[in-house]
Amino acid sequence: MENSNIKNRKVNITEDAITILKTVMLFDQPYGMNYLARILLGSKDYGFKNEMHTELETFGLFKEVRIDRIRDLINYLIKKEFLFVSNKR
């Protein structure tokens, strides 16, 4: 999977996309983008709705990535219809 949106050069985001999608599949219900980003970032101080989420195998895998980059990746997956936004609360 390539994203050519970064200064006209192609970047392979396949592994990152797989990690994001895997995390969503591991959730017990839908959660928001910021929640997903905090799981991937490994934010231990974030008020997680389900503390078991800190035990997910993908928790903290993006600890070296800026949160805005994680959000950009999630938005890209939404734009390409790999993820869908639900307005259900």
Q: Helical residue percent?
A: 25-40%
Strand content: 5-15%
Contiguous low-pLDDT stretches (5 residues minimum) are none
- Count all strands and give the number: 2
Radius of gyration based on Cα positions: 13 Å
How far is the first residue's CA from the last residue's CA?
31 Å
Strand order, sheet with most strands: 1-2
Mean pLDDT: 86
Shape: globular
Count helical runs: 3
Computed structural class = alpha+beta
Write the H/E string, N to C: EEHHH
Give the biggest beta sheet.
Answer: 2 strands, antiparallel
Short descriptors:
89 residues; alpha+beta
In summary, what is this structure?
The chain is α+β, with helices and mostly antiparallel strands. The chain is built from three helices and two strands.
Describe this structure in words.
With 89 residues, the chain is α+β, with helices and mostly antiparallel strands. The chain is 39% helix and 10% strand. It is built from three helices and two strands, in the order ββααα. It has helices at 14-26, 33-41, 67-79; strands at 2-6, 9-12. A two-stranded antiparallel sheet has the order 1-2. The longest helix is centred in the first third of the chain and has 13 residues, at 14-26. The model has no long low-confidence stretch (mean pLDDT 86).
Topology:
Layout: E1 2-6, E2 9-12, H1 14-26, H2 33-41, H3 67-79
Antiparallel strand pairs: 1-2
Helix pairs in contact: 2-3
